[in-house]
Structures are given as structure tokens and as C-alpha cells.
Automatic annotation (TrEMBL):
The lineage of its organism: Bacteria, Pseudomonadati, Bacteroidota, Bacteroidia, Bacteroidales. This is Aspartate-semialdehyde dehydrogenase. It comes from Paramuribaculum intestinale. Substrate binds at residues 155, 234. Pfam families: Semialdhyde_dh, Semialdhyde_dhC. Belongs to the aspartate-semialdehyde dehydrogenase family. The gene is asd. Homodimer. SMART domains: Semialdhyde_dh.
Amino acid sequence: MRVAIVGASGAVGQEFLRVLEEQNFPIDELLLFGSSRSAGRTYIFRGKEVKVKELCHNDDFKGVDIAFTSAGAGTSKEFAETITKHGALMIDNSSAFRMDDDVPLVVPEVNGQDAFDTPRGIIANPNCTTIQMVVALKPINDLSKITRVHVATYQAASGAGAAAMDELVDQYARLSRGEAPEVNKFAYQLAYNVIPHIDVFTDNGYTKEEMKMFNETRKIMHEPALSVSAMCVRVPVMRAHSEAVWVETERSISVDEAREAFAAAEGVVVVDDPANKKYPMPLDVAGCDPVYVGRIREDIANERGLSFWIVGDQIKKGAALNAVQIAQYLLAHGKKFGA
Ligand code: 2RA
């Protein structure tokens, strides 16, 4: 199998290299692509050096079976034809095609079968905040249909990329020396702060990030009437997003029932022992694969409501790992590559 990573030098691109190794993904040849800036850099994969090629409009994708792309929506749109024209399956981490009717938007634990319907040879990987939320919503929705979701996110710097992570470290360093922090990647200084603003604002007062949670959740869960109201906030955490979630279901669900369903759900780990100060936190979850769920309780403001706290590594399950799991799902369910 020939596999390509587009955007190999970015935070998610680098995570693809680690995840493909960790998952022992079947690869005969790995090709790395990037901008003219990153072309020529080398990275180690399975003990061998692989050089980054510049992404160009040529036939470099001939013979490629799967291309994991994470170089921004503009690049994905511009190069989709180049990447897919010889038959490569493009699993795209950007927002470019997520809401297109002829592109499936897939989280394997929730709607893996959708990955087989690819008229354009493209599968979209959802936004990180949506991925970790739907993994946790699925077992509850299986118990009783969810009618409404309220969610407040606590998103790490990693969601804004490798340079944003560096910026957060640099801000703390400068502040500790009594210097003014540099602000480039965020709207304001993130160190010692929280910023209730991720992506741009839309006409309804929500940000695009918040509307992604509304629209993508409906598409992945095949629930076109589901209401999702999100408040997305950047916090000075390096890696792993947290979310406080309140759901309303058609019938009321007990805490025990919910805990059992979460514990049995694919991709979910329950850490919920408040008496012993056990609950998921980003420091513990960074670098881990599953979505962690804790603080499970009845919502005292809604008799059909349930409230819980989830934490997932944004670069892993929220990006590279989910994309690789889509490919693994296809392989496990009979899709043939390289035939
Ligand atoms: C963020 N959700 O955290 C974005 C990344 N996709 O900024």
C-alpha cells in the first residue's frame, strides 16, 4: 500500500507519522508532501528517512492508495483533483468538504459505514471538537434519542497548530522575564487568559467553530433536527481539548445507565470517581487515543438532562488518529486498495 501525507511538517502531519507507526498501519511506501517551505526536510518513519516533496500539480499521486491531507482548506480544495485523479482516496482533515453532500464526514465509532460512499474519492475528517463529542454522544443516543445538546469547550493551543503551541510557551517565557508577550496566532495573549473566540464570527453571533459543532454533529449522527448550541473557548493548555456537555434525551437516563453505556462504548474510557478526585484532565489525556468521560451526573436544571465532562487529544483522536481509523475501518470491512 502506498500512503501519502500532505502537510507533513505541520502539527497534524507530524502526528500522522507517529500514529501510522503506532497503529502499525500496512504501508509499503510512504510519501510526504508539503509547501515549498517544508520541501526537502526529512522525517524518520519506521527507522528510515523520508524526504518531503513539494506539493505540485503533477502526477505524483499516481499509484498512491490513500492520501491523508492536513494542509488547510485552501490547499485541499486546490489539490483535490491532483490527489484523487489517479484513484487515491483522500482523507481530508480540513473543513473544505465536510458539509458537501457527496463527501462523507466520518467518525468510525459513529458512522463508519458512510466511509464507503465516496463518489469524489474524498472522505472528510470532522473538526476536533465535534469528533470527541460525537464519540461520547453515540452511546447516549443509542439509549434514548438526544434532542438537544449544550456544550462549552476548553480548547488547547494545539488546535491552532504547532506555531500556536510555540507561541503559548513563548508568551509564558517572556512574561516570566517581565517582557511583553508576542501575539500572532490568537486574538489576544493566551498565557494566563481564556479567549471566548475560535475562528471567525458568523451573522448569528456564533463563531464558525461553534457552527461546525452544530452542523457536523447533525451530519455524522444522521440527526438533521438535533440542536447543538456550542460556546467555544481557547484555554492556555498545550494539548487535548476538554468539553462540558449537557444533553437532553427523549426519556430520562439514569447516571448508572449512562455510565454503563459510556463504559461499553467503542473509543470511550470512563474516569469518574469524584470522591477520589478522579476525572479526566488534559494533562493526563495528552498523547492518548480514547475520549475520556467523567463528572457524569443528572442535570438538576432539566429532568431529561444529563451532564458530563469529556477530554480528548485534539491532534490524535481529534485529527490524525480519527483519519487513520477511517482507513482502518475500510480495510477491516473489506475495502481493497492497490488492486
Ligand atoms: C481549534 N478546532 O481548536 C480547531 C482546530 N481544528 O482551533
